Amino acid sequence: MVNAPRIPSDVPRPPAHVRRNRVLMIAGVVLLVALFVLALVTMNLPTWQRFVNGMQRNFWPLMRGLVRPETEVFGLAWRSMSETFFMAILGTALGALLAFPISFFAAGNLLGGTRWALPGKALLVAIRTFPELVLAIIFVAAAGPGPTAGIMAMGIHSIGYLGKVFSDVIEGIDQGPMEAIRAAGGNQLHTFLYSVVPQVLPEFASHVLYRFEINLRAATVLGMVGAGGIGLPLIQRLQFRRWDEVSMLLIVIVGFIIVVDAVSSRVRNRLV
Amino acid sequence: MAHIRFNDVEVVYRTGLKALKGVTLEIPRGQFVVVVGLSGAGKSTLIRTVNSLVVPTKGSVTVNDVNVTASRGGALRRARSDIGMIFQTFNLVKRSSVLRNVLAGRLGDLPAWRGVLGAFPREDVAYAHDCLARVGIPEKAFVRADALSGGQQQRVGIARALAQKPSVMLADEPVASLDPPTSHAVMSDLKRIAREDGITTIVNLHFIDMARDYADRIIGMRDGVVVFDGTPDEATDAVFEEIYGRPLESKDLRGA
């Protein structure tokens, strides 16, 4: 009698919020499946026959060109990729320098409450909303074609991203050292310099490097709208289907990015 | 003359929690006071009213006849620079060097711009090294703080407080994160330095044996009220059971 098995009606009913979450999750999955099906039927995808025809006409010339890179454009590729590289450096630096002060006004723990950080956070969201390419087109129109437009576009877009991750880093710091500096008679600026900055700086540097890797890849595309760098020579040759020259440009782009990523991620690993 | 005076200090937190319910105490210069009580009894709140990290909702605390509770801005920073504090979790900047952590203790005594630029006068840097030597780790000055053991980190905490050249030292559960032998070593250092420099010291502890070993005077707190105030000899097991409101357990002792 002591060890009587529990009868099923003994199992407690899950509380209301658990049941509600379960319903919400099922609803979410159904919604996602519905969206997928809707996308399939509205997209008017090409027929299999068209796909095969296209491949027969274009695939072999494409492959023939790609396996025979035209070495004559190597100099051009190297020069424009270098320009892209320096654009990424300046764009990232611009973004980091401007994101640094803004991020402190988007960190709730420094302002004494999450609500005081809302204007800063809203500004960063607003900046992030603009796609980089749109910014680049606007700056090409405003400042004329060339690397300046690309640097501005990258810089502005990076503020949104870096400001966000910087403020997340700040919100994750240990508050104990701040209390210690205050207890020792330090003022607000001392507290900031002696307990906030040393805690966040290595992670800031790591995020800046990571953003630089992203910007380098983005900068290759920005050139396509005239914002400087290797994008312009690339799109010209793509439009005229000069696959052998495209191949040379791609080799330089990919090689450059692989080397930069490898170096940068090594440095990042040592930072944090 | 009392060095530290609590005048009917009351603290009510914004949550409505009454942490201190009218505490009146006088602590003479040079005394080594241990405050005991269960967590939540108001020990941490009590010592934080001394340097106004927690501001009393009623009453006041005076140090050297200066009303710290009423002080603001520069006056409060000057008062704080005379009051060293060490913490249960050390509160060091782990990525900074030990020396830089200790130098932070000098901030309150220097012109603000020197602290901002990190331009510490030679004698202040020398003094920071001296403080490290006094807690027995002179060779760790240029090591990152997170490379040290817990006991060493707490010694850096003591050195930082010492660098303030304080007349008062507050210690909030300074050994709660340390193992028993290290706890005793750190408490001995704290007591020795307090004796040598004549520093008035308030330490929060919850270990009965350590309180008896190191205190000149034991203050027992329960529910925000002082329920015992006497010498270690007077603080019998029965007294501690009264303070804790329950029979004593083995976890109330740190051991050797």
Could you describe the 3D structure shown?
The complex is a heterodimer of chains A (272) and B (256). Chain A has eleven helices and no strands. Chain A is mostly helical. In chain B, 45% of the residues are buried. In chain B, a hairpin with a 2-residue loop joins strand 9 and strand 10 (225-230). In chain B, helix 6 (150-162) runs parallel beside helix 7. Chain B is globular. The model of chain B has no long low-confidence stretch (mean pLDDT 93). Chain B is built from nine helices and ten strands. Chain B is of the alpha/beta class. Chain A binds chain B through residues 174, 176-177, 179-187, 189-190, 193-195, 198-199, 202, and chain B through 51, 53, 77-81, 83-85, 87, 89-96, 100, 104-105, 107-109, 112, 115-116, 118, 157, 160-161, 164, 170.
Cα-based radius of gyration of chain A, to the nearest Å: 27 Å
Oligomer: heterodimer
- Tally of extended strands of chain B? 10
The computed structural class of chain A is: mainly alpha
Low-confidence stretches of chain B: none
The outline of chain A comes out as extended
CATH class of the largest domain in chain B: Alpha Beta
CATH class (first level) name of chain A: Mainly Alpha
Content of β-strand of chain A: under 5%
Name the helix and strand elements of chain B from N-terminus to C-terminus, one letter apiece: EEEHEEHEHHHHEHEHEEH
According to DSSP, the number of beta strands of chain A is 0
Work out the count of structural domains of chain B: 2
C-alpha end-to-end distance of chain A: 61 Å
CATH superfamily membership of the largest domain in chain B, which one? P-loop containing nucleotide triphosphate hydrolases
Biggest interface, which chains? A-B, 20 and 34 residues
Mean pLDDT of chain B: 93
Reported by name, the CATH topology of the largest domain in chain B is Rossmann fold
What is the CATH architecture term of the largest domain in chain B?
A: 3-Layer(aba) Sandwich
* Number of separate helices of chain A: 11
Shape of chain B: globular
Low-confidence stretches of chain A: none
